[in-house]
Design a protein that fits this description.
- The structure is a single chain.
- Helix content is 48%, strand content 0%.
- The protein is mostly helical.
């Protein structure tokens, strides 16, 4: 026995426009976040930890090379 296909709810004109506006805001926020994250990655790639004042900066354990012997 097959189940009947449920149709999406019928939204009023205002509810439909509110939903579209919300989806547009969410999409814009996701794009802005993506651009921000890409800028952060680019900034980290161009600015090596050795270039900073203070010399060699210890890295968190999650970023250490597991094949390299610790000194």
């Amino acid at each position: 026995m097959t189940r009947p296909v449920k149709s999406s709810p019928n939204l009023s004109q205002k509810a439909s426009s509110d939903r579209e506006a919300r989806l547009a805001r969410e999409a814009a926020a996701l794009r802005a976040n993506l651009h921000k994250r890409k800028q952060q990655v680019r900034a980290r790639a161009t600015k090596a930890p050795e270039d900073e004042e203070g010399g060699d900066v210890p890295r968190p354990a999650s970023m250490r090379d597991p094949h390299r012997a610790e000194s």
